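Entry 14. Structure prediction run on the chain below.
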Amino acid sequence: MNSNYQKGRLRRWNDDKGFGFIGADHGKQDLFIHITAFKKMVRRPIVGDIITYQVHTGNDGKHRAVNAKIEGVTQIKKSPRKKYVQQSKDSNLASIVIITVLTMVVGSVVYKSAITKNGLQEKQTSFMPFYPLEEKNTGIYSCTGKVYCSEMTSCDEAMFYLRNCPDTKMDGDGDGIPCERQWCGQ
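Output returned:
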C-alpha cells in the first residue's frame, strides 16, 4: 500500500450499494472506492466531495481507494463506546441477577405465607352446619372449660359448646354434629 495520500473529487456515488468512483486530480482513470474506506466520518460521502485517500492494489491487480477522508467533514473521535457497552452489559447482568434473587426470596415468602394461611383457613372454614338451639336452652349453658363429650349432659349442651366455646374436641369427623355416639347420634 502506498503511504502517500492523494486527493480527488467524488464523481459517482451509489449510496444504496455503498460504492463510487473518485476522479483523480492528475487526470488518471477513475478510482473505485467502497463505503468501508470512510472510517470515522460523521456523514456518508456525496458526489462532488473532495476525498483524501491512499491507493491500494489488490491481489487481482485492481486499484482502489482506502483510508479515505472527506475534506471539510469532521471525523468521529475514538469514543469509549465499547467500554460503555461492556459496562452496560455487566450492569444489565448484575441487575438481572439481583432481580432474580429478589423474585425468588419474595416468591418463597409469599408461598410459605399462602401455605400457612391456607392451612389455617382449612381449619377455620371446615363445614359446620347451623343447628339453632331451642329458646328454652339459650341461657342455660356457658363456656366453663368443658371440652369432651364425656363432660356433656345432653346433645343441646354439646351443640352449644361446639358452636360457642373454643378448643372443643367433640366433632371428630368435622360434620358439625358433636358427640354423635353419646348424645347426638341419630
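Residues 6-70 form a domain with the OB fold (Dihydrolipoamide Acetyltransferase, E2P) fold (CATH 2.40.50.140).
Filed with the rest of this week's runs.
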